[in-house]
Amino acid sequence: MKGNILFFFVGIIIIFALNVNFGQSKVKKNKNYNIKISELKKMKKTESEWKRVLSAAEYHILREKGTERAFTGEYDGHFEEGTYVCAGCGNKIFESETKYRSGCGWPAFYNAIQGSVTEYEDNSFGMKRTEITCSRCGGHLGHVFNDGPQPSGLRYCINSVSMDFKSKSKEEAQ
Q1: Which residues contact 159 (CB under 8 A, 6 or more apart)?
Q2: DSSP 28
Q3: In percent, how much of the chain has pLDDT > 90?
Q4: 138 vs 14: CA distance, rounded Å
Q5: Is the peptide bond before 149 cis (omega within 30 degrees of 0)?
Q6: Among 108, 131, 149, 153, which is most buried by a count of CB atoms within 10 Å?
Q7: Closest alpha carbon to 86 in 143, 35, 168, 158
Q8: What region, left, alpha or beta, does residue 126 occupy, with left being phi > 0 and alpha being psi -120 to 50 degrees?
């Protein structure tokens, strides 16, 4: 009888632990975009391959989910016409028309190019946020908040290091 009770309680503890673990895992939202994940061209590299092609700062932010200090990024005050692309894979993520001065210290956009980013719940550091990653290579870009301007009301707060910029004049020349 004691063995059955012990087995029952151990089973309950294991089930509870598994539910807590799964409940805290990152959940893919992808609610803003009407695309199928299978339609995305996924890019797979090993961590050693990423270390070879990215700078130390790019690796820290894109692969280790780091962040740059506020007001230090190259693109915070940058307002040239063109397209911002993922520094890891070149995926187009933001058009310059959607960039604005938020005052937060990081480049801010009110809209991402459709299908270019994936959203995940991020509860790290005791905060409830939505992490943004590149839909192609999975690189960490930053976070999105619900305090941006219209038409979307969103503020995509992005690390400059996680992006490169393609000038409109250079794109037209090609």
Answers
A1: 61, 66, 67, 68, 73, 106, 140, 141, 142
A2: B
A3: 66
A4: 31
A5: no
A6: 108
A7: 158
A8: left
The span from the first CA to the last CA of the chain, in angstroms, equals: 78
Is the pLDDT higher at 9 or at 106? 106
pTM of the model: 0.73
Instruction: Show me where the domains of the chain are located.
Output: 28-173
Using a 10 angstrom Cβ sphere, with 0-12 exposed, 13-18 middle and 19 or more buried, the burial of residue 40 is middle
Of 53, 55, 85, 52, residue with least CA distance to 158: 85
| C-beta neighbour count of 122 within 10 angstroms | 16
Instruction: Catalogue the active-site residues.
Output: 157
Strand order, beta sheet including 82-86: 92-95, 82-86, 163-167
Q: How many residues does the chain have?
A: 174
Q: How far apart are CA 51 and CA 21, in angstroms?
A: 29
CATH of domain 28-173: 2.170.150.20
Span 32-64, pLDDT tens digits: 333 334 344 677 888 899 999 999 999 999 999
